[in-house]
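INFO  loader      accepted 1 record
INFO  loader      residues=261
INFO  predictor   begin
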Amino acid sequence: MTATVLPFQVLDAPETWRSIDFISDLHLQEQEIATFEVWQSYMQNTTADAVFILGDLFEVWIGDDAVQHHPFLQKCALVLKSCASKRQVAFMRGNRDFLMGLAFLHECHVKDLQDPTVLSFSSQRWLLSHGDAGCLGDTDYQVFRNMVRQAAWQKDFLSKPLSERERIATQMRAQSKLHQKNPSAIYADVADEWSLQLLQEANATSLLHGHTHRPALHHLRQNQLLQRCVLSDWDAGAEKPRAEVLRWHLGGQVERINLLP
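INFO  predictor   done
INFO  writer      dumping tokens
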């Protein structure tokens, strides 16, 4: 795979590739072992030439040094490394695991993806993003996102003792769950104007993202030739379990593969 660093990271898929898998929003955590087991089986058995993970693989990431203290994270690392020994595995940071460092990715032989990235495959150009940057209607989140993506904020946070980082992360997750349970809470979707601008700048036809947990295919109102394709989240232990892969085949065919019975 070749890469060119422009306003967007541009990747050209090798001519030998026949299919590419995309997943996001697995929110892996030790308390949700069912989702981990489905993911582990999928990573061991997928027939795709590449697996692109578009953010929120983990429920939370408080620094690469946490891996040496948590057996569950070590198991996840082994799954990534094993899969990456057989095919290309690439990772894009999400809003939950934006602190993942190059050290961990390199250790697992996983390619680091910028957000957004243009992927050229089968004579098409797709724009890949986690999607949270496009939820313009959630102004409070955008302020928070801009703050925590600053190098100074991350350096300060990562300099704290691991136990303190774990405590902060636990508090933030508790606040997030309370917000999710609020029946009046409204979650902003990825804005069409943001999608259209990025697609036009990238000279791409499709935007593929996760984050919103609203799997669907949208044609942009401003330009029906352009589309926004949303990945599913994963939760194998939910009342309505979910674990879906989007596979892009050579020739342009796209299919959604349900991994659950």
